[in-house]
C-alpha cells in the first residue's frame, strides 16, 4: 500500500474494475470506484440514508475518532451536535469577514517573502504554499498567527534577514505542521490494520502513530485552554474576536456572542469536542484547499486558460516550467 493510499486504490481499480474487495487480516473492505454508486453514499446531506459510510474500526476507536468530530464520528447524536455548531460558525458573517480580511493580508505577506527571496534563491513552492494555508486556517480557527510561512522563509535567508518571531512559536508551528501531515497516515494505519497485526507484528508503528495522535491532541487542548483562560480574564460583555475557537467556546455560555444560533441545542461544547473540530479544520481543511489551489496552478500552465493568469507575478507563461517567476524552482504542489 505504501504512503499513497489514493495511488494504490487507483492501481487496484485499473486491475480489478470499479468494485473490488481487500482484506487486512480478517477485516474485509469493499471498494466502489464508480461515482454514480458512491455519490448517494457519500452525500453530506442530513437526509442521507447512509450515516455510517464505513465499517467501524478498533483502531479508529483506539485513537478516539469514532465518537467526536464530524468526519469519522459514528455516534449520530454527537455528530449532529458537532455538525450544527461547526456549520453555523463557519457561516457567521463576522467570522467570514474576519477570515477574508486575514487572507488578504496573508497574500501580501507571501508576496513580500517571495520578493525578498528574489530570483537567486530556490523555493519549494509546495512547502511554501502549504504553510500559507496553515497560516490562513490557523488565523481563522484561533485568531492568532502561526507564522508558518515565516518559519520556512527563515530557513532560506541569512540570520540578518530572517523574520523576527519568537523561536518557541515557530517551533510549535513546525510541530503542528508535522502533526497535520502525519494525521492521515496515522488514521489510515489504525483503520486498515486489525489489532493483532498492530499490537504484535507492527507494534513499533502502532506506538509511533498513537503517540503522534496523542501529542497533536495535547497541543490542541493546550491552545483551547489558553484561549479559555484569556476569555475568563475579560469582563463579561467585552467584545471578543469572532474566530472559530472563541465562537465554539462561548456559544451557550454567559459570554455568548449571539452571532450564531444552535436551535434546540442549549449546552456548550466540551474541550474534547472543540479539539476534534479544530483537528478536522487543520487536517482536512488545509489539504482540501491546497488541492484546489494546486489544480488552478496546473491549469494556469495550459494554453486554454493561460491568458487568465498572464498578468500574474508568481507564474510563468503557459508551456514553461512550473516555477514561480523570479522566485526560484517550484516543486509540484
TrEMBL record:
Listed InterPro entries: Cyt_P450, Cyt_P450_sf
Pfam family, any one: p450
One example GO MF annotation: oxidoreductase activity, acting on paired donors, with incorporation or reduction of molecular oxygen
Protein name: 5322_t:CDS:1
